[in-house]
Amino acid sequence: MSDYESKINRLIGRWEGKKAEGKETIEQHKRKEERDALRQTVTHTNPNASVETFRETMETPVVDKCDVLIVGGGPAGISAALAAARASTKESPIDVLIMERFGCFGGVITTVGMETLGWYRYEGCTVDSEGIGKELERVSKRMGGSDRKWAFNDSECLDTENFKFIADMLLEEAGCRTLLHTSFVDAIMDPDDSTKIIGVAVENKSGRGIIKAGRVVDCSGDADVAARAGARFTKLNRKDAMGLTTVFNVVGVNKEDFLKHIEKKPATYEDWSKTWQQDTTGKEDDLKSPYMQDEFSELNDSKKEKKEPISFGGSWSALTEKGEATNLNLVHMKGFDPLNAQDLTKAEIMGRKGVMEAVEALKKTVPGFNDVKLRNVAMTMGIRDSRKIIGKYNLTGRDVASQAKFEDTIGVFPEFIDGYNILILPTTGRFFEIPLRCLQPDTENLYVAGRCCAGDMVSHAAMRNMMACTVTGQGAGVAAAISFRNKEPASKVTVKDVQAELVRQEVNIHGYVGAGAEWASGMTSGIKSKI
Ligand SMILES: Cc1cc2nc3c(=O)[nH]c(=O)nc-3n(C[C@H](O)[C@H](O)[C@H](O)COP(=O)(O)OP(=O)(O)OC[C@H]3O[C@@H](n4cnc5c(N)ncnc54)[C@H](O)[C@@H]3O)c2cc1C
């Protein structure tokens, strides 16, 4: 084992210790009993009610039917919808519907304002899954929705406002049906098999309705569908879960003055450790980071004194020529449960107040920011961490850090770990394969993609990243379409067929590197967007 491998293994080992301290709980909603009780209440006499009987007795109409339903329109959901629709053929078309509770698609990209799908791409990061994640960056650039790079490396920064429109265009071009302003509220299970999902109940301005679906892909970030369907999941307690963040943008930055200030006082990843106890492998420490902390000392001291669970400091992103500083990831709240509406309310309000305070601190302490004006506060605060399903396979930190390979790989992700006070940047070219099984919960005909897929804390710190979410989204979308077409239960889908379709969709499922690589021969299939 090389020195590097020993080091990274020691880091992961410390994490496993944390897990052993019991910070993570396994939970499961009492689904079967709840369902049986519900069925008896609504059907009075017929405990084996079908969805149609539901309709008559609850007066809940079946408002739509589809082959593949995607719940949630973030990076995972968009990728799942595009992938499922692109798996359609003339001979066997797949009807795909994507639903989202807010008024736009994009998830954390558009509703929180996070513009960097691949900020980890420092020199030495040679492998990505390609597929839809990279396509989102390419299409955004082509459509004028990405006109700048991240501060200290070659990553594209998406214009998160523009991305709302780009997501609409991509979904339309692929032939997906769309439903906005619609919240998932419950899972509809097969009356004869309470472990099999057959649709969802939704709420919107038109009222409550049922959408029947052949396969459901849960891309809600919080595994809402899986939890309501009775699947097992893990959840960290309030104290140990990653913090919530209110992102904001300002205008009026004097770019020249600010960049001079940064030059004089450059920040590195080692500086992160001044505030957060953070482990790295050492190779990250001297890399430049768009990071601010000392600028908020006074504000942080006053909050500490008042024992308020909010802190200031973190990253800026790219600056535009027009003096906009977007994606300011500087206001963090800790100790709130993102699955509790009261906690969410308190944190939203605290975060907005924090943004006003942060703007004043920036004006006072940061050269170039003296005259800035708040341009917007994210429409919702960002959540990093809530439920993670228990899957057929639960990815581990060891898998991430040992270049794991799986027979049921659906794509790869670089060895990039960011979270729970650990930072490993993928500067070595190392990467791991992602197995389909970590998208398969113990509910039939359901796949789960995005940040709530199955794994331990360390693997979550890798898999929560948006590019990884596009890999699981695309994998889940293809698997849902193939299992529906093959008439196989989602848990028994033919993996070879899923992989063949992913390769046709130009996903680098094994992480071959460089020009001339075997997989690259499929690059001309024309499956990507022509927009
Ligand atoms: C502040 C912050 C900064 C981050 N920075 C980065 C970064 O720089 N780079 C990076 O790669 N990653 C970053 N991440 C992580 C990354 O953004 C998320 O992990 C990722 O967006 C998760 O993708 P997802 O598709 O699983 O979920 P989301 O992006 O959360 O999308 C889920 C979607 O489902 C919808 N939804 C939820 N519940 C329901 C429901 N009941 N009914 C209907 N719709 C529903 C939501 O409205 C949302 O649109 C950051 C996260 C946060 C919070």
Automatic annotation (TrEMBL):
tRNA processing is among the record's keywords: no
GO molecular function, one term: oxidoreductase activity
Pfam families: FAD_oxidored (PF12831)
InterPro entries assigned: FAD/NAD-bd_sf, HdrA-like
Gene3D superfamilies in the cross-refs: FAD/NAD(P)-binding domain
Protein name: FAD-dependent oxidoreductase
Residues in coiled coil: none
Keyword terms, alphabetized: 4Fe-4S, Iron, Iron-sulfur, Metal-binding, Oxidoreductase
